[in-house]
Write a structure and sequence with these properties.
The complex is a heterotrimer. By secondary structure, chain A is mostly helical. Chain A is built from three helices and no strands. Chain A is 75% helix and 0% strand. By secondary structure, chain B is mostly helical. Classes of the chains: A mainly alpha, B mainly alpha, C mainly alpha.
């Protein structure tokens, strides 16, 4: 792909990463935070694949890595959502700001 | 401008770039929608849009298998899971409340700075780009790798998924009377 | 035989070991201490006599009778001082041999005497063993002095003896004379100057007497040391042999310091030391008061040995004095000697204390020795030194026997009294400072001759011995004292054309007259007449340990003179005449050409002189004896005082020792005390103390300020403040612990940014990267 330079891909990835970080930092709802985290993971994956494609396309390790990242993301999403549901059941609220038992 | 079919040269159309920009719009736009939407359900839908864009990226990058995996796993499983979780906690998340928390005004600039720094890092390195093309049957290679050199990560991921599955079930189940 | 010479240094070591042993171990045992001391000094005598007789043998066998210069020497490398090694050593020549004959022998006799004498005072004062330790140390010092071959070793021994003298004079330091405090003392300068009105007490307590002795001899010691220093700095050596080499003597005479040849200057200073130690005018004032020490001490130190150390020193250093024919140093020696001789003799006439008479007699006789040395005749001086030591020791021991006899009654009462009144008596001398006079009922002074009388009946052997000593002292014909004194007078007479010799002759003769007179007085008062107090009535002869030494010494007093009779007496040629001249006289032969003042000629017998002096002596002696044996009571006036008009004043002047003590008080002590008071005021009241107090207060103020600063500043700000600050910071930091995960995540991101920033700054161009982005 000579028409799209690698740096564009990396820029996109960086942008997605930042947006996802913003979401993780800012959203009130726990599920919203999880969605931000998913965005971050996607950004990472884009990075991985782009590097694979532009630097070592014959070495399948890049895709392997990306697949594994996807798997882990799936596991993490499942567990995280299970936690959110459990917490919600307890407190009837998924607002993260109220989860401050560790304060001080 | 008048459309002249004889002048239309398919090879002249920068198709890749058009697709790239379209996918970018989906991805970034979807991402923005995820983090700014007041309605959680809308956020989830924007998330699905973003996932689609990422999948398109993978196609552009000659990672077809990965694109499909992305669609299956992310869109088909994770996003659906998110939707279900939202629906489980729907009572509290009525639309209307601002979704941003107390520190958004700090997080914003921080994130912008983060973005800029990442760009700086990217630009400061000369990447050893090659002209090579991916060769052969990628799926075949992936299969062989997963059961060959990368067997252990494969198995570990299997264990991880099992654990996550069990954990999620335990965490999320209804408490029975004996607990 | 060489063994004795090689180990000559042992001679002083024996008594030194006794000293150490008694101090460290034997103090509790009285018999052991006395026994060890006597044994050690006897050992020294044996060793010394072995050397003496060996030397005599070598001398007699030597064909070159007169040129026996090299004695025997044992050099000892002592102190390495960088480039050189300071050499000291021991040497024996005729002179040393003569001294080695006399000194340890007399010491032994006196030690034996003291072992009985001191028993009488054991009950009152204790410290019997310590006495023997002290006298042993002293003997060690004297013996080392005699065999030293350089001035430094001599000086060390000199000082050791000075110390022992102090310790021994003040041996009975608790003794006080309460009457002495009642004597009027001058209060201001006018009174001080009227010294004849404020005559001091007759006796001062032993504690003060010891100090007086030490201080006075110290003046001499300082001069001696100064002389040594000058000598050493010019000649580079302190060894006798090297100093008396003719070249060195000439060198010393050529170099002058303040216009005076170094030889003469150092000689005069060294003589200053002798003046102090041998109680010459004007530093004689300590010797009479030194009689406060026990009598054996007086006999040993202040008659036979220490005071003769001064004479020994001058005799040893005589070539230094005699570098010119009529050297001023010699003149001074002679002048001082003459003055001392006459002064001592005249004062002795008016003293009542039996020991003081002998003390002034000693002063006078030492003056004779100095006169002899002043004429350059060192053999004459040494000869008189030797004979004097014997008979003066005899006389002092005899006086000790007299006192012991007089105290017999007191000690008998003591024994009874102590059984009743003092059942527990601490023998180790832990007495409080109570008055040892007042504890007994008042009894007449046992030492006062007015209280004695007719003692010859009670103590015949001691009397006979004492008489022998007296005859020797006055120069009765054929006694030792006769030969030695006569040699001096004859020598002076022969040179009577020179003014110094002339006056020496006059002084010697006058002194002899008075000497005989006061000795006759003493014999008359003590042994003849009738007993004037109960003490004399109950006197008793002391034991054999005290009488035996007297008899031995009497023998020597009579006959030792025969070692140096002139070669021709009344025309009769004496076979062994002038023997001492030969034996000891060659000592300075080495320096003969450079020391023209020395007189090597053996004594000549001058009939006129001999007969005149003998007759004068005999007449004066019997006159004094007759005059004073007539005394009936203890309180009556002295016959001198009965002379009309001038009798009482003359007697008063003589009795008060020419008011020397009072004059010194005015001239020296009063200004010193005034200066001391001034200094004290300066220190305490006016200057020093106020300054010190000011600094003290100032420092205290600073300290307070420091304390405040510390309390409020340091403690407040730092010690307390730092924890407070930390608390505050902690409190602030705690606010970060919101418990909210998103906050933590934010911080995490910020940290990440920082790290990326550092990475960018350090490893890459940073901003360049951002700019290059869109175009790649």
């Amino acid at each position: 792909m000579t028409t799209i330079p690698l740096s564009w891909w990396l820029t996109v990835s960086a942008a997605l990463f930042s947006i996802g970080m913003y979401g993780a930092l800012t959203r009130r709802n726990a599920i919203g935070i999880l969605m931000g985290v998913e965005l971050i993971l996607n950004a990472v994956n884009i990075n991985l694949v782009a590097f694979w494609r532009y630097i070592a396309p014959n070495d399948v390790a890049g895709q392997i890595f990306a697949i594994i990242v996807i798997s882990v993301a799936a596991a993490e999403a499942a567990v995280g959502l299970a936690i959110v549901i459990a917490v919600y059941r307890r407190r009837h609220s998924a607002v993260v700001e109220e989860l401050d038992i560790l304060k001080n | 401008m008048p459309f002249d079919p004889a002048m239309f040269d398919p090879s002249q159309i920068p198709l890749v770039e058009i697709v790239f920009w379209a996918m970018t719009v989906c991805t970034i736009g979807g991402a923005l929608g995820v983090v700014t939407s007041r309605n959680l359900f809308h956020s989830a839908l924007y998330l699905i849009l973003s996932f689609f864009g990422v999948s398109g990226y993978y196609v552009l990058l000659n990672a077809g298998f990965l694109a499909v995996v992305q669609l299956f796993v992310y869109v088909g499983a994770i996003a659906v899971l998110v939707l279900f979780a939202i629906m489980f906690s729907r009572r509290m998340m009525a639309a209307g409340q601002s979704q941003a928390n107390q520190q958004w005004w700090v997080a914003g600039p921080v994130v912008i700075v983060l973005f800029v720094m990442l760009l700086a890092v990217v630009g400061s390195i000369s990447w050893p780009v090659t002209e090579a093309e991916p060769s052969g049957d990628v799926v075949n290679q992936l299969g062989l790798a997963f059961l060959g050199s990368y067997l252990i990560p494969f198995e570990v991921v299997g264990v991880l998924l099992s654990v996550a599955l069990i954990g999620a079930i335990i965490l999320a189940r209804e408490k029975t009377a004996e607990e | 035989m060489n063994f004795f010479f090689d180990y000559i240094w042992l001679i002083p070591v024996y008594p030194l070991l006794a000293f150490a042993a008694i101090i460290l171990f034997l103090n509790p045992s009285k018999k052991g201490s006395a026994g060890l001391a006597i044994a050690m000094i006897a050992l020294s005598t044996v060793h010394a006599w072995a050397i003496v007789f060996n030397t005599i043998g070598a001398f007699m066998a030597d064909a070159h009778h007169g040129i026996h210069i090299d004695g025997w020497s044992l050099p000892v490398e002592w102190i390495p001082t960088g480039f050189t090694v300071f050499n000291t050593g021991f040497a024996v020549d005729g002179f040393t041999a003569a001294m080695l004959f006399m000194v340890p022998f007399v010491c032994t006799l006196i030690f034996i005497y003291a072992s009985e004498y001191m028993e009488g005072y054991e009950a009152e004062f204790g410290r019997y063993s310590r006495f023997f330790a002290y006298v042993s140390l002293f003997a060690a010092g004297m013996l080392m002095l005699v065999i030293a071959d350089n001035l430094l070793l001599l000086f060390i021994s000199w000082e050791i003896m000075g110390l022992c003298s102090y310790l021994l004079i003040g041996f009975w330091f608790e003794k006080t004379y309460p009457d002495a405090d009642k004597v009027a003392t001058p209060r201001n300068l006018i009174q001080v100057l009227q010294f004849w009105k404020y005559a001091g007490p007759d006796k001062i307590p032993p504690k003060l007497a010891a100090l007086k002795a030490f201080m006075t001899t110290r003046i001499g010691d300082v001069m001696l040391f100064a002389g040594m220093m000058i000598l050493w700095s010019v000649s580079g050596t302190l060894s006798f042999r090297e100093i008396f080499a003719p070249d060195m003597l000439e060198h010393l005479t050529e170099i002058t310091l303040w216009g005076i040849p170094v030889a003469t200057l150092s000689a005069l200073l060294i003589f200053g030391g002798a003046v102090g130690k041998s109680a010459q005018f004007p530093l004689h004032v300590w010797l009479p008061d030194a009689m406060e020490g026990p009598t054996p001490v007086s006999a040993l130190i202040h008659a036979a040995t220490m005071v003769s150390a001064g004479v020994y020193l001058v005799a040893r250093m005589l070539p230094l004095f005699a570098t010119m024919e009529h050297s001023p140093a010699l003149q001074w020696v002679g002048i001082i000697g003459a003055i001392t001789a006459v002064m001592g003799a005249t004062i002795g006439v008016a003293q009542y204390d039996v020991k003081r008479v002998l003390a002034y007699s000693t002063i006078s006789q030492l003056g004779y020795m100095m006169m002899a040395l002043g004429l350059g005749g060192f053999v004459a001086g040494i000869f008189h030194l030797l004979t004097h030591s014997f008979f003066k020791a005899l006389l002092f021991l005899g006086s000790g026997s007299i006192i012991h006899a007089m105290e017999h009654e007191i000690h008998a009462a003591h024994a009874h009294g102590h059984d009743d009144a003092h059942p527990h008596h601490d023998e180790h001398g832990h007495h409080d400072e109570h008055d040892h006079q007042a504890s007994h009922p008042a009894h007449p002074d046992p030492q006062d001759m007015r209280n004695m009388g007719a003692l010859r009946h009670k103590m015949m052997p001691s009397f006979i011995a004492y008489l022998c000593g007296t005859l020797a002292l006055i120069g009765f014909p054929l006694t030792a004292g006769f030969w030695s004194k006569d040699e001096i007078l004859a020598e002076a007479f022969l040179h009577r054309s020179e003014p110094l010799a002339f006056w020496i002759y006059i002084a010697g003769t006058v002194g002899a007259i008075f000497t005989a007179f006061y000795m006759g007085r003493q014999i008359g008062l003590v042994f003849f007449g009738r007993p004037r107090t109960s003490l004399a009535e109950n006197a008793a002869e002391p034991g054999w340990r005290m009488t035996m030494p007297l008899i031995v010494l009497a023998f020597f007093a009579l006959f030792i003179g025969f070692i140096n009779i002139p070669e021709e007496v009344f025309g009769i040629h004496v076979p062994f005449g002038g023997w001492l001249h030969g034996f000891a006289g060659e000592v300075h032969l080495m320096a003969e050409e450079a020391a023209p003042g020395l007189n090597f000629a053996p004594g000549t017998f001058v009939p006129q002189v001999a007969i005149t002096s003998s007759l004068l002596a005999i007449v004066s002696f019997f006159f004094g004896g007759w005059l004073y044996s007539r005394r009936r009571t203890a309180e009556e006036l002295d016959p001198i005082q009965t002379i009309p008009v001038i009798g009482k004043p003359i007697f008063a002047i003589l009795y008060n020792k020419y008011y020397f003590d009072e004059i010194y008080r005015g001239l020296l002590i009063y200004p010193t005390m005034a200066l001391a008071t001034f200094c004290a005021k300066f220190d305490y009241d006016w200057v020093i103390n106020p300054i010190v107090n000011f600094f003290g207060r100032f420092t205290s103020l600073l300290a307070d300020g420091s304390a405040a600063f510390d309390k409020y500043g340091v403690d407040g700000y730092f010690v307390n403040g730092i924890p407070n600050a930390f608390n505050w910071f902690g409190g602030q930091l705690r606010l970060l612990q919101t418990g909210r995960a998103q906050n933590y995540l934010l911080i995490l991101v910020v940290g990440l940014l920082i790290l990326i920033g550092i990475y960018l700054l350090l490893w890459t161009g940073g901003a360049a990267g951002v700019a290059s982005l869109p175009t790649s």
